[in-house]
Amino acid sequence: MAKPIVAFVGRPNVGKSTLFNRLAGKRISIVQDTPGVTRDRVYAEAEWLNYNFTMIDTGGIEPENNDIIVKQMRRQAQIAIETADVIVFIVDGKEGMTAADSEVAQMLRKSKKPVVLVVNKIDNLKDESNCFEFYNLGIGDPITISASQGLGLGDMLDEVVKHFKDLPNEDEDDEYIRIAMIGKPNVGKSSLINKLLGEERVIVSNVPGTTRDSIDSYLETEQGKFILIDTAGIRRKSKVKEEIERYSVIRTYAAVEKADVCILMVDATEGVTEQDEKIIGYAHEMNKAIMVIVNKWDLIEKDDKTMINFKKDMQQKLNFLSYAPYLFISALTGQRVHKVLDMAKACYDNYNKRVATGVLNDVISKAVLMKEPPTVALKRLKIYYVTQVAVKPPKFVLFVNDSSAVHFSYQRYLENQLRNSFDFEGTGLEIEYREKK
After folding, report:
1. Is 184 part of any known ligand binding site?
2. Which of 24, 83, 200, 405 has its CA 20 to 30 A from that of 353?
3. 10 Å Cβ neighbour count for 43?
4. Of 319, 351, 383, at which residue does a domain stop?
5. Does the annotation list 233 as a binding residue?
6. How many H helices and E strands in the chain?
7. Does residue 59 have a known ligand-binding role?
8. Residues 198 and 268 in one domain
9. For the chain, how many structural domains are there in total?
């Protein structure tokens, strides 16, 4: 399930960033007594009662102010509200209710999103009664906290995670294979999805950044049931100026998290860029099933070596993805598009593959006989037993005498042995070395 997104909103200087930093466990947002210090959205991961979620700190909303920076902050906060699953509305318990609070409350009511009303700066019991006037906002019972002293945060988080249960449950779609199309803007992600769906489901335009959010499309074919997730393309940070696009980056990462198969789409006329490496690197770190599609292949002048050389060049740049298969297509003309779902299904099957324990131990024993582990700091690794403990991705636990004696080159050797023996093409593997106690 994708992580829910929680946005902190309110007018400037009510303590949003102080609360955000306390929950994030580190100082991410700048905290200062000047209104408008947080001009942009900042995000961080958090966890409460076994729920993982993404928090967004927003610039303060000042409905009546026409200052250009304040206008931008208001727009950013609106975008955060539109894309958040739960909104934490923070007000100032010392200053009391203001006209701006009422305006923000009205904006939140229109959003039809779950809202948790939080009265901040209640630093001691005698200030508790300050919260009663906030019932007039008409968005539920206020919860009193002190972000600076860490008071009342548990009650607030309990209320926030209660709303997660009401969010659409993606586990109902378990029979579907989730495929995320990722890559830079304008590489043809939406065009490919439209070709696979056979209809104009996603807006296609050659203006980069047409897709603002991740869009899900359902598809059933002979190969199986699929959810195709079209994500907004991610540009280099220096080029990410428009506030809507900044927010799309979070949604793209969220799409990668909930996907089974991540397809990196590369423009054949540009080749692999540094930004492509970053995007797919995130999916690689999460050990997702991965394939690489080179689109716009019809625009390339070719001879009999063009594809081989192009693939070799890409494999050098994406050397951490040695297990990923490659496919050269043209979404515009339909060239090889019929192979996309076949390849995605093969990657998914390997992502979901189980290996019998007996066979697994035979392979690892033979691998150790062929190549003994090197000595690390006067210790030699002994592998007693190996078992597979999970799928999506396949996870193996090797019980050893001393995990500090595992050399990284030997880790790579054992992973290659597993890949060669059981065909794990197109999927990441997780391998854990556990001391036998």
Report:
1. yes
2. 405
3. 22
4. 351
5. yes
6. 11, 17
7. yes
8. yes
9. 3
Specify which residues 86 forms β-bridges with: 6
Contact between 424 and 396 (Cβ < 8 Å): no
Q: Tell whether residue 185 is among the known ligand binding residues.
A: yes
Q: Any binding-site annotation on 231?
A: yes
Verify that 185 and 141 share a domain, yes or no: no
Q: Is 382 annotated as a binding residue?
A: no
> Per the annotation, does 60 bind a ligand?
yes
Same domain, 207 and 178: yes
225 labelled as ligand-binding? no
61 is an annotated ligand-binding site residue: yes
207 annotated binding-site participant: no
155 marked ligand binding residue: no
Paired tokens of 111: 């959003």
Domain encompassing residue 423: 357-435
Is 426 labelled a binding residue?
no
15 marked as part of a ligand binding site: yes
* Same-domain check for residues 29 and 15: yes
Q: What is the pLDDT of residue 411?
A: 92
* Residue 232 in marked binding region: yes
Q: If residue 396 lies in a helix (H) or strand (E), which one and from where to where?
A: strand 395-400
377 assigned to a ligand binding site = no
The answer on whether 3 is annotated among ligand-binding residues is no
Q: With a cut of 70, which residues of the chain have pLDDT below it? A: 1-2, 26-43, 59-77, 79-80, 167-174, 199-215, 232-251, 437
**174 belongs to an annotated ligand binding site:** no
**What count of other Cβ atoms lies within 10 Å of the Cβ of residue 83?**
21
CATH for 404: 3.30.300.20
pLDDT at site 374: 87
- Ligand-binding annotation for 227, yes or no, is no
Residue 30 marked ligand-binding: no
Distance in angstroms (rounded) separating the CA atoms of residues 64 and 100: 8
> Which position has the token pair 């692999």?
272
123 is in an annotated binding site: yes
Calpha distance 418→288 (Å, rounded): 17
Say which CATH number the domain at 302 has: 3.40.50.300
pLDDT at 382: 92
Q: Do 147 and 11 share a domain, yes or no?
A: yes
Does the pTM surpass 0.70? The reply is no
| pLDDT of 63 | 60
Q: Find out whether 183 is annotated in a ligand binding site.
A: yes
Consult the annotation and say whether 248 binds a ligand.
no
**DSSP-based three-state secondary structure for 256:** helix
| Cα end-to-end span (Å), the chain | 34
Looking at the fold, whether 187 and 143 belong to one and the same domain comes out as no
Identify whether residues 317 and 429 lie together within a single domain.
Answer: no
Q: What is the pLDDT of residue 248?
A: 55
The answer on whether 11 is annotated among ligand-binding residues is yes
